[in-house]
């Protein structure tokens, strides 16, 4: 029987595709790029698994990359976030790392891209949510060109992009029968507008090693750091202490650490910048400051079969 009054049809809206993080590999397979619906973006060079660019949603670049940096795999990248492993600085002659180049082999090895994982917290139209994307990269002893370090290992390096933040973490697995010592550092070159107006807070109560004064130990400064000359310091402090970088009194970055008890603060200033062939422009020191989370003041020992993990998170403010 035909009903006199039919219920009105419920209009069906077309299904809107959910915006999700995007990942692409360059045509020459040299780099991986990830972006979020918010506009945040990161680029990782497979040579060294080096982060060479990190843009906020507004397009602002947060990392300094030298205009003379080599991106063809011929040498370590000057800028971005080079990964230092298993030794920081020049190796000591009497140590197992003595045959390695300065800062180790991780930053000058070709890594394997292992894949991505992503999360999208909201499926509602016109909402950005707090989506994130994690890129994983791998390096093992079998991938090295030469046996300059006689130990077996497997490294998994993760770069996680979220809105206004970038995380880098490293998992070290000892896959051999022998224990070994190592050091690790995320050599972050932060972009700043004017180094003379830049300060670093959170290190006031920490003593430091001043490498510009022959590795002299210096007592805590009790005040935020200002950069007025060549600076090369290694601070040791609890890993739960946050570090902030401000410009003109306004905070720009916050750095938090996990299992990393050291922070290196570095700026080459005028003469040192001139002496580095891959540093440019010549006055580029005015627009960068390295604030590097790591474990470098002592050696970490990894027993056979064991795993170590540490990382950092840099947030724009």
Average predicted confidence as pLDDT: 92
The number of E-state strands comes to 21
Which structural class should the secondary elements be placed in?
mainly beta
Q: Give the uncertain stretches in residue-range form.
A: 1-18, 121-129
Numbering strands along the chain, what is their spatial order in the largest sheet?
6-7-8-9-21-18-17-12-15
Number of helices: 1
Measured by DSSP, the beta-strand proportion falls in 35-45%
Radius of gyration: 23 Å
- The rounded distance between the terminal residues' Cα atoms is 67 Å
SSE series = EEEEEEEEEEEEEEEEEEEHEE
Bin the helical content: under 10%
Which term fits the overall shape? globular
The largest β sheet comes out as: 9 strands, antiparallel
Describe this entry's structure for a reader:
It is built from one helix and 21 strands. The chain has one helix spanning 269-275; strands at residues 22-25, 31-35, 41-45, 50-55, 83-84, 112-119, 132-140, 153-162, 165-174, 180-186, 189-191, 198-201, 208-210, 216-218, 225-226, 231-236, 243-247, 250-258, 262-267, 288-302, 307-316. The protein starts with 21 loop residues before the first strand and ends with a strand. The relative contact order is 0.16. Mean pLDDT is 92; it is low at 1-18 and 121-129.
Task: Jot down its keywords.
42% strand; mainly beta; single chain; 8-stranded antiparallel β-sheet; disordered N terminus; 317 residues; 21 strands; 9-stranded antiparallel β-sheet; 2% helix
Summarize the structure.
The chain has one helix spanning 269-275; strands at 22-25, 31-35, 41-45, 50-55, 83-84, 112-119, 132-140, 153-162, 165-174, 180-186, 189-191, 198-201, 208-210, 216-218, 225-226, 231-236, 243-247, 250-258, 262-267, 288-302, 307-316.
